[in-house]
Specification:
CATH class of the largest domain: Alpha Beta
Number of helices: 12
Distance between the termini: 38 Å
Structural class: alpha/beta
Number of strands: 15
Strand order of the largest sheet: 14-13-12-11-7-10-9-8-15
Order of helices and strands: EHEHHEHEHEHEHEHHHEEEEEEEHHE
CATH topology of the largest domain: Dihydrodipicolinate Reductase, domain 2
Shape: globular
Number of domains: 2
């Protein structure tokens, strides 16, 4: 995006340097940035582990061996940039040492790859020590646990950093497939005339995971599907699907339109959600024996604006489902009359496969070969497969270093997301049990108002 932005950051500090997120995502992103020539400033890891710099470099190598591979030249360059500060986040001495380690850096980027509960403490220490002066901060999801905690976290961030220097990261916005969704919508004029309540019957968004909680039971039992992916990832996808076109050229334009459409979503109530829990979840290590946390959630959204009034947006997400994939299905209304006397079982549609493979497809009807004027359903595939792409964290950290906020969630959008789900977070409705390997509890079917029901994505890895 074009527009006037401040000079790039001259140091990168990442808190939680010895943690799981750094191991899985941050170190691979840093090596990729170095390899592309996008990172040539000091990189300072901060954690409380009793480590030294050599141990951090060893951790970085182990991370890369496990997640994408070590590029010898780029890794050596990364190691030359690495610094390490070991200390407690509540101890002012840790941040005094960080200030010394920053040296002459005047515009550091501070990335909080740490639990949200620690963010306010760290940000306060950054302000007290002078490390925040001239800098930026990247706050990692989940951004709070509900509307009240999100607002409190925003207050603590904005007490130290001005809003233009706060980058709230949702890595889903950095995915190539999500970027392609936006590009496809706004770079092809044939869709805009029909992208509204006059032609679209419903929208479905499914995020399915075939795995369970994978040893993270204690974390997941404090989170659940709504907080984990619906409040953030899937509401952001909804915004990408439903927003109006942004004004060209200004970095805030995209965020303005996303916030506007999220604020138009009617808050969810008990009759608009079905929660589920896969059988065996309560036997997972770290999970309470009587846990009421959902591992599956389905919701029905309504957007109260001129474009979308009356069009239901159905969202579901769950673990231990038949496949792992994320897919959007936009179903169009049937033609007003059947010109050839056919009863059409399935409407036209636009399908976006967002992962693990990528596809954009149009479902249409074409005449079947022969004398009779009868048709058949065909799918026109616009693109498919996984190409060489920039990973989400590499893209987003690079944007934050440059001060480009386009792909980051703004305060008003975050709070709008929490307002949508806030009432159902404390719902006393118990989750319905479902068998692993199925599409969740059968009770979720009641949310779908048209005969076709939920569109279950298939696993493209089994299709030739």
């Amino acid at each position: 995006m074009s527009g006037t932005m401040a000079p790039p950051s001259d140091a990168l500090v990442f808190f939680g340097a010895t943690g799981d997120l750094a191991h899985k995502k941050v170190f691979p992103a840093l090596q990729a940035m170095v390899k592309r020539g996008h990172l040539d400033v000091p990189v300072i890891g901060v954690a409380k582990a009793g480590w030294d710099l050599d141990q951090l470099k060893a951790r970085a190598r182990h991370s890369l061996e496990a997640h994408g591979g070590v590029d010898g030249v780029a890794f050596d360059k990364l190691c030359a940039l690495l610094r390490y500060v070991d200390g407690d986040y509540a101890d002012p001495a840790t941040f005094d040492l960080l200030r010394q380690t920053l040296g002459s850096a005047k515009r550091p980027l501070h990335y909080l790859a740490i639990p949200t509960s620690l963010s306010s403490t760290v940000v306060g220490q950054l302000g007290r020590s002078g490390c925040a002066r001239g800098g930026r901060v990247v706050a990692e999801k989940p951004f709070g646990r509900d509307l009240a905690s999100a607002q409190a976290l925003n207050r603590s961030l904005l007490a130290v950093f001005p809003e233009p220097d706060v980058f709230r990261i949702d890595h889903y916005l950095g995915k190539e497939a999500v970027q392609n969704l936006l590009y496809f919508r706004f770079s092809n004029s044939l869709f805009e005339p029909i992208w509204n309540r006059n032609y679209i019957d419903s929208v479905q968004i499914t995020m399915a995971e075939s795995v369970g909680v994978e040893g993270r039971g204690s974390f997941y039992d404090q989170t659940g599907a709504v907080r984990d992916v619906i409040e953030n990832h899937l509401l952001q996808v909804t915004a990408c699907l439903a927003m109006d076109a942004p004004l060209r050229g200004h970095p805030e334009a995209m965020r303005d339109e996303k916030a506007r459409v999220l604020e138009a979503v009617t808050p969810l109530g008990p009759d608009s959600v079905v929660r589920g829990q896969f059988r065996g979840y309560r036997e997972e290590p770290g999970v309470a024996f009587d846990s009421q946390i959902e591992t599956f959630a389905a919701v029905r959204l309504q957007i109260d604006n001129w474009r979308w009034a009356g069009v239901p947006f159905y969202i579901r997400a769950g673990k231990c489902l038949p496949v792992s994939c994320t897919e959007v299905l936009v179903e169009l209304k049937a033609p007003p009359c059947a010109a050839f006397g056919e009863r059409m079982e399935h409407p036209n549609y636009v399908r976006f496969r967002l992962g693990p493979d990528v596809a954009i497809a149009l479902g249409v009807r074409s005449k079947a070969p022969g004398e009779a004027m009868v048709g058949q359903e065909v799918e026109l595939l616009a693109t498919r497969g996984i190409g060489v792409e920039m990973a989400a964290y590499e893209r987003l950290l690079g944007d934050a270093m440059r001060g480009d906020p386009t792909l980051f969630a703004r305060e008003d959008a975050i709070e709008a997301e929490w307002r949508i789900v806030d009432a159902i977070l404390t719902s006393a409705t118990p989750p319905h049990e479902y068998q692993p390997g199925t599409w969740g509890p059968v009770e979720a079917d009641r949310l779908i108002e048209h005969p076709g029901g939920w569109a279950n994505p298939f696993d493209t890895r089994t299709v030739s």
